[in-house]
Fold this protein.
Amino acid sequence: WITEGGETFQESCINGLNNLKNEIQKDDYVLIQYGAAPFTSEKIVTDVIKKMKEKGSAVTATPCYQLLGSNDENGESKTWVDRDKYIQIACPYGFKYDYLLDIYNRAEQQSLLQTIEPHTTSLMYALGDTIYQAYGDQTNIKITTKEDLDLFEGYVLMKKYRKSENK
């Protein structure tokens, strides 16, 4: 099914949920993917589905490989952050449909939709829900900046080159 997106990620998710109300059952599963992540692999999607079926929900989680530090005032960093304690969260997200409806209903009742960063996972954290991790890797980039577009172009060219080499 296709539905109109919204001004924000949240609004697009809500539009999709509303569009599915008469199409699927509450115990069906739903995957959320943003179009800005064109390299989501079969391995990532498969693991999200596997973990979602085990736990009722799952999100793509990639370990942090860069060193992390605090972002203090005046462009200073004074505190080292243990990167092993953090993950990078990306789409796809997978949910049992009734649980996804519940997240957005509770968030609306608590007026979180207007105050929380526009992602389902942000709402889950604000609601005190547990986020279950599925496989993620660094090729599952989200194209947000000009530099991301350059990475996208380079990755596409590399794949095209390797494909032509293997003919």
About this structure: The longest strand covers residues 87-96. The CA atoms of residues 143 and 151 lie 9 Å apart.
